[in-house]
Amino acid sequence: MKDRAIFPDARGRSWLVEVLYGHPAPTERGIYAARFRCPEDEAEPVRLGFIEIDAIAHDDHELLLEALGMSDPAEEIG
């Protein structure tokens, strides 16, 4: 199963999305926790959210962008 993808945002920057295994999510419905990172812009915070695994498997940029838009900036622990 493909568990990561790279896709462009509206500004043309590439984002990497990776499935976070072991996080509570309704995986039986194909929904997984995900980490979004923009390697081209270090000032952009890492974001956490949820993703339909089919969006990653089929490189569905529309669904990937939607999931990115619904994600939240990660907060530092400690």
- Strand arrangement across the biggest beta sheet: 1-2-3-4-5
Radius of gyration: 12 Å
How is the main sheet built? 5 strands, antiparallel
Low-confidence stretches: none
The best one-word shape is: globular
Percent of residues in helices comes to: 10-25%
Structural class: alpha+beta
How many individual helices? 2
Task: Characterise this structure.
The chain is of the alpha+beta class and 78 residues long. 19% of the residues lie in helices and 35% in strands. The protein is built from 2 helices and 5 strands; from the N terminus they run ββββααβ. It has helices at 53-57, 61-70, and strands spanning 4-8, 14-20, 31-37, 47-52, 72-73. A 5-stranded antiparallel beta sheet has the order 1-2-3-4-5. Strand 1 and strand 2 (14-20) form a beta hairpin.
Label this structure with key terms.
single chain; 78 residues; alpha+beta; 5-stranded antiparallel sheet; 2 helices
